């Protein structure tokens, strides 16, 4: 089993999108690569903690190789938007790929280079080692399953 953390704007839709893909074993939303300890949603919304709203993904690489997972990721984000996705604006809504295993770094960088070929504007999606990840409050977990009409910037159907 492999793990990756992805940021793609509001984490509710990112989690719901990935939870529907065969080979995804587990998802949890939280806050990635910030500068404080144990942030709350309210802390992150102040836009001064450095955290991105992100989704932890545990997946079976035999069913869903990382490059296929990344194809799905690129399909739901606008990688040239800095600190925003959909109607959400702020550094917590930036796009990012955060790896835990060093061997994933080259795959992520190559994928970013390939997607760049599709855009005239610069792709600003971060690719970085996961420095920290704090699980978000329980009410954020599986939010769109609990609230099917909740806000989502990703087309899920």
Question: How is this structure best described in words?
Answer:
Belongs to the MsrA Met sulfoxide reductase family. It catalyses: L-methionyl-[protein] + [thioredoxin]-disulfide + H2O = L-methionyl-(S)-S-oxide-[protein] + [thioredoxin]-dithiol; [thioredoxin]-disulfide + L-methionine + H2O = L-methionine (S)-S-oxide + [thioredoxin]-dithiol. Its EC number is 1.8.4.11. This protein has helices at 11-19, 41-45, 66-76, 105-116, 143-146; strands spanning 2-8, 24-32, 52-59, 84-85, 88-89, 95-99, 126-129, 133-135. By secondary structure, the chain is α+β, with helices and mostly antiparallel strands. The protein has a single domain (2-146), classed as Peptide methionine sulphoxide reductase MsrA (Peptide Methionine Sulfoxide Reductase, Chain A). It has a six-stranded mixed sheet with strand order 7-6-1-3-2-8, covered by helices on one side. A two-stranded antiparallel ribbon has the order 4-5. Strand 6, helix 4 and strand 7 (126-129) form a beta-alpha-beta unit. The longest helix has 12 residues, at 105-116. The model has no long low-confidence stretch (mean pLDDT 96).
């Amino acid at each position: 089993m492999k793990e990756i953390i992805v940021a793609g704007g509001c984490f509710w839709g990112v989690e719901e999108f990935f939870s529907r893909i065969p080979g995804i074993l587990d998802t949890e939303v939280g806050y990635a690569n910030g500068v404080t300890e144990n942030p709350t949603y309210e802390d992150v919304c102040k836009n001064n903690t450095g955290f991105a709203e992100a989704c932890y993904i545990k997946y079976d690489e035999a069913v869903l190789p990382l490059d296929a997972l990344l194809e799905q990721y690129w399909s739901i984000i606008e990688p040239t938007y800095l600190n925003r996705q959909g109607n959400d604006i702020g550094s917590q809504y930036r796009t990012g790929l955060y790896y835990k295993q060093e061997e994933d770094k080259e795959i992520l960088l190559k994928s970013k280079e390939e997607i760049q070929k599709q855009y005239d504007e610069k792709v600003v999606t971060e690719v970085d080692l996961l420095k920290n990840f704090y699980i978000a409050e329980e009410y954020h977990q599986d939010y769109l399953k609990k609230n099917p009409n909740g806000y989502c910037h990703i087309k899920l159907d």
